[in-house]
Structure prediction request, 112 residues.
Amino acid sequence: MSEIVLNDHVDSYYQLAKKMISEGLSHNDVLHQIKSQGVHDEIIFGLEKKLNIHRKIKLGFTLLIIGAFLCLSSCLISLGLNFSHPFCHYALYGLTSIGAGIALYALFLILG
Prediction:
């Protein structure tokens, strides 16, 4: 198959797969249903690659929100506590480090 025709088929099946996923099917169920229609293996491989990228980006955005929330909550906790309070350092350094680490991993998933 030529590259242009292959990409067109992958894109059309990708739109169908996104619709099926929004209806509640898992990625594996979607691939199994499309395979059962007798679709060419190269199209299935391209579709599987696109679905994996879509899954990583979705997970990355979720983790990015969690990391940002942890960083914001550590800021608010450290502002609310007195700086001489023994738990202030845990909130200030611990939660911020965990939140930043999660956010960096999320950016790796999104951009990588």
About this structure: The first helix runs from residue 3 to 22. The helical segments are 3-22, 27-36, 41-80, 88-111. The two ends are 28 Å apart (CA to CA). Residues 31 and 48 are 7 Å apart (CA to CA).
